[in-house]
Amino acid sequence: MDPAAHPFAVLADPIGRRIVEVLAVGEHSAATLVEVLGMEFGLSRTAVSHRLGTLRRLGVVSAGVDPAEPRSRSYRLEHEFVGALEAETERVLRAFDHRYGSAERRAPLVDPPRPCRRIGGDDPESSCAAWRT
């Protein structure tokens, strides 16, 4: 993966994020990606090809020959990108978990438990821990 391509920068772009979402469930042909991105974003085949080429150069996706259609390419996420995304997410979560309290004590801040409620629901079983699993 290109070190200049931060995983969050790839996901900041709605089209790049959607490509990652689609490929996260498995390998897909260029035709499938054109169909999805064309319907959702109104992109042409050329625009999708350009986006995929950029993501390929950055090391986010890789391409191979589509076995079902030898003249077409099949795309998949690069494991290195997924690993970098996981590492950056873990770094942010670790920083969040180690927030500091007051300036004089510098002790880790311990928040009281807060219920996480679903919109329109008053389920007492709904807790923050349930959402994290």
UniProtKB/TrEMBL annotation:
Q: What is this protein called?
A: HTH arsR-type domain-containing protein
Which residues does UniProt assign to the signal peptide? none
Report residue spans for region: Disordered.
Answer: 104-133
UniProt-listed InterPro entries? ArsR-like_HTH, HTH_ArsR_DNA-bd_dom, WH-like_DNA-bd_sf, WH_DNA-bd_sf
GO MF term (any one): DNA-binding transcription factor activity
HTH arsR-type domain: from which residue to which, for each copy?
Answer: 6-98
Note the superkingdom of the native organism: Bacteria
Q: Which SUPFAM superfamilies match?
A: Winged helix' DNA-binding domain (SSF46785)
